[in-house]
Amino acid sequence: MRFFKVFAALAILAILSGCGSSKFRTYRGPEVTMVHVDKGQRIMRLLHNDKVLKTYRFDLGFAPVGHKEFEGDGKTPEGVYFIDRRNPDSKYHLSLGISYPNEADVAYALSQGKKPGGDIFIHGQGPLYANMKNRRPDWTWGCISVSDDEIEEIYSMIRTGTRIVITP
């Protein structure tokens, strides 16, 4: 009888441990070779060579028109960059770092006597923003924001070093 109780308790624990959801997913499809972000259409495409694997809608910085030039301008960069880091502990659920600023971005900002800014990411909404009923679009400081469910999928698909092209 005691064996049965222990076995039943272990079985229940095993079942319950499988019920918890993880923000880390496994992706087994084709490699994402490029991310294309079309700021004007608010469409991000994950591509394998010239084939579109997935498409997402997103929010941008609070001043979405134009290339990011300075710290705090609320713009999202435009140009060719790379995914240069992964943050599994982001306050925005998960995030993928974009290699802004590059040398040209830094040189331009310094020539104007300003800082270029940085910490530009593709990220989720996190608990602060996901539950806001009156959240306005284009709320970030220059990042690309998708839903938490979407960033889980994107995070699993994109590797560090993947090229990201951001167009107006």
List the SSEs and their pairings.
Layout: H1 2-19, E1 34-38, E2 43-48, E3 51-57, E4 79-87, E5 95-98, H2 103-111, E6 120-123, H3 126-130, E7 144-145, H4 148-157, E8 163-167
Parallel strand pairs: 1-8, 6-7
Antiparallel strand pairs: 1-2, 2-3, 4-5, 4-8, 5-6
Description of the structure:
By secondary structure, the protein is of the alpha+beta class. It has one domain (29-167): L,D-transpeptidase catalytic domain-like (Beta Barrel), CATH 2.40.440. Helices cover 25% and strands 25% of the residues. The protein contains four helices and eight strands, in the order αβββββαβαβαβ. The chain has helices at 2-19, 103-111, 126-130, 148-157, and strands at residues 34-38, 43-48, 51-57, 79-87, 95-98, 120-123, 144-145, 163-167. The chain is globular. It starts with a helix and ends with a strand. Residues 3-18 have low confidence and may be disordered.
Q: What structural class do helix, strand and pairing data support?
A: alpha+beta
In total, the number of strands is 8
Q: Write out the strand line-up for the largest beta sheet, numbering strands in chain order.
A: 3-2-1-8-4-5-6-7
Indicate how many domains the architecture comprises: 1
Distance between the termini: 70 Å
Looking at the chains present, what oligomeric state does this protein adopt?
A: single chain
Question: What overall form do the CA principal axes indicate?
Answer: globular
Q: Count of helical segments?
A: 4
Indicate the proportion of strand residues. Answer: 25-35%
Helix coverage percent of residues?
A: 25-40%
Average pLDDT score = 87
Which CATH-level-2 architecture? Beta Barrel
Query: Any low-confidence stretches, pLDDT <50, length ≥5?
Result: 3-18
Level-1 CATH class name: Mainly Beta
